[in-house]
Structure prediction request, 139 residues.
Amino acid sequence: MNHNPETGEIIEERAADGGQRYPAASTITDLLMMLKDGAFNADSVEPLQEFAQKLEAAGVDGGKKVKGSITLKIDVDFDPDREFSVLTPSLAFKLPTAKHGATVAWFTSDGRLSPNKPRQGNLFGTIREVTTEPRTVRG
Prediction:
């Protein structure tokens, strides 16, 4: 049986049933592998591939740079009475949202949006329909 002389922690490579024991996590990588006995890491393979494919497609289809994000969140609930923590991981992928063109608008004094610039006179009203009736031109 090995132990850490500084902390007194018993370090055994095998559990009583002969299975492999995980060492204490020292890095984020160690912690990720510890979550759900490595299943959380393994379960991220397909969502990560799908994210990468969609982000690449968005950039190629749009012909420009695109931004996405990957967020790893680990909720840690420590119970001082039982002296352990429960770690609950989640992984979120955010792809760029499709934009549908831009519209210029101004804020009105009563808190609404308007396509007309406030405090500027109206030079033109609504757009009138132009018909294509034949016209006679006098010469």
